[in-house]
Amino acid sequence: MKRMAAYPENAFWRLGSLLVIGCALLPVAWIVSLSLKPAADLNDGRFLPQAASLEHYRAIFGDAQFPAALWNSVGIAAIATLLAVLLGMLAAYAIVRLRFRGRRLVLGGALAIAMFPPVAVIGPLFDLWRSIGLFDTWIGLILPYMTFTLPLAIWILSAFYREIPWELERAARLDGATALQAFFHIIVPLAAPGVFTAAILVFIFAWNDFLFAAALTSTNAARTVPAAIAFFTGSSRFDLPTGSIAAASVVVTLPLLLVLLAFQRRIVAGLTAGAVKG
Amino acid sequence: MKRRGISDERLGWLLCAPAIAAMLLVAAWPVLYALWLSLFRYDLRFPGQRAFVGWDNYTSVLSSGVWWEAFLNTVLITAVSVSIELLLGMALALLLHRALFLRRTLRASVLVPYGIITVVAALAWKFAFDPVTGFINPLLGVDTAWLAQRGPAFLVIILTEVWKTTPFMALLLLAGLTLVPQDLLQAARLDGANAWQRFSRITLPLMKPAILVALLFRTLDAFRIFDVVFIQTRGAQDTETVSLVGYHALITRLNLGLGSAVAVLIFVCVIAIALVFIQGFGTALSEGEAER
Q1: I want to staple A90 with a disulfide (CB 3.0 to 4.6 A). Which of A12, A48, B15, B190 is the partner?
Q2: How many Å apart are CA A10 and CA B100, to the nearest integer?
Q3: Across the interface, do B115 and A256 touch by the CB < 8 Å criterion?
């Protein structure tokens, strides 16, 4: 490592680091603080709670709405992730390894969908889902999530696939393995880190989505957490249940943040892979 | 290499078939269907009155104040937040590149805004600025109802958007920054170039493709803004964006004909933005070629 520059410059970067960490964590700290404030203290205008209480957490888990939404969110996001990564793996393999005329079509389609405004498809999907019985169902959300995360999955996986030592595959094929055997026995294990990265990012997309959830669901049967939180109702129409919203926000935020922090290197690599190499 | 079994061509199509099918069925077909619906009077509350009306829906959308105001609002939010994000994102990318102090913590905290659900981020900032619940007013010693007035509401919306997406911008820029050869910067330093000269004459030109990619992604994303505005104002105080207009027409008022016209117009705007950037890529690439 080369020697650091002069001291003032050093202090400047340190100050910057602290500032960024502070700004990034501020709203999270605030929502945690709100969720812990007893109902009577919610409007005290202080950043930190004077006393901590778990009453809002008990309230949201005592109600039917939030546990249902949590289950919907986990299930829908997990299945959509699984499907998107699976389809992405197959397509990315074909794009990186095979010379065939559909390459441009798939890459072009993926690029187009990445730029898609989701609001342009919610109307037709709403109409169609209602007539074929997919409105307010898990499948009704899994399908759009899977499709709209495919570009992300295909890009990240192609970028990772390009780094794989493909001579191994060639060796396996010369030894008599079919292309599919070579793919599943040699390439899949090597591609695992890329697959994992793609899965996390796809999961975040599905977990984060609000527009599709707001448009294509209406009840606890399939309403996911972002939509449930947005449409939480308090005792009166004009009374936002601040404490419950804060507690629900913390419950859906903290686990994901822990995953993000644990795998930060891979996520950063995945986020930038598509942009730089694609 | 010797071919065994299926040819590359067939295997390629086979492997891509599920992805292509999904993209056609859940993305391409709905857009075409939206185009079709936009030519009809089609209100789900009065399904019996469905009739072909040609361009009428477009005429009524384009001649209404609602669309143009939402359009200007969206352009304003996009332009302001993406500009701020570019500046902050560049500073953050340099910081991530340089910082050794608290390096892991810094990189981890930068991912926090990216990973948080947009609805949650919007609510956190909404509560923070709330005159009753929030801590911002006591902190600043003011008594402002931020989200009840147009200007301050835009401020809060843009702040939320910038907070949420600057890390993504910074990571894309960081990827470009790491491609700048260190020995070039070192040579310039030895030749007596100061930090600003090294940045503006070497780093910035070499990063041009990365900057354009980051700008394209963020501009398209910002133009589609929905969650933050829906949560913070629901479009009140004249803060409606085009996505909100589309959502309200389609889902709230169930007017599929008019809503689809809005959706198609948004789609056209997005294509226009993409084309402008692709033009930019072309120029950047040919400039790069010329320099080499």
Answers
A1: B15
A2: 9
A3: yes
Indicate the residue of A47, A249, A260 with minimum beta-carbon distance to B135.
Answer: A47
Residue among B12, B31, B91 minimizing CB distance to A121: B31
Q: Assess whether pLDDT exceeds 70 at residue B166.
A: yes
Residues of A in Cβ contact (< 8 Å) with B92: 20
DSSP string, A207-218: HH--HHHHHH--
| Domain locations in chain B as residue ranges | 1-31, 61-291
pLDDT value for B42: 86
Cα(A210)–Cα(B229) distance, integer angstroms:
12
In this predicted structure, what is the pLDDT of residue A233? 66
Residue B169 one-letter amino acid = M
Which of A87, A119, A122, A142 is the mutation pick for testing B, counting most B CBs within 10 A? A119
Residues of A in contact with B246 (CB under 8 A): 119-120, 122-123
Q: Quick one: A56-277 is in which CATH superfamily?
A: MetI-like (1.10.3720.10)
Whether residue B118 and residue A24 make contact (CB cut-off 8 A), yes or no, is no
- pLDDT band for B227, please (50, 70, 90 cuts): very high
A260-A265-A270-A273 Cα dihedral, nearest 10 degrees: 150
Using a CB-CB cut-off of 8 Å, the residues of chain B touching A87 are 18-19, 22
| CB atoms B270 and A117 under 8 Å | yes
Q: Confidence class of residue B289 from pLDDT cuts 50, 70 and 90?
A: low
Task: Supply the ipTM of this predicted assembly.
Answer: 0.89
pLDDT for residue A4 = 47
> If you measure CA to CA, which chain A residue comes closest to B164?
A24
Residue B1 predicted with pLDDT over 50: no
Question: What CA–CA distance (Å, rounded) separates B50 from B257?
Answer: 9
Q: Domain boundaries in chain A?
A: 1-53, 56-277
- Name the CATH superfamily housing domain B61-291: MetI-like (1.10.3720.10)
- A118-122, A239-243, B113-117, B214-218: the lowest-pLDDT one: A239-243
Across the interface, of A124, A208, A256, the residue whose CB is closest to B33 is: A124
Residue B19 burial (10 A CB sphere; 0-12, 13-18, 19+): buried
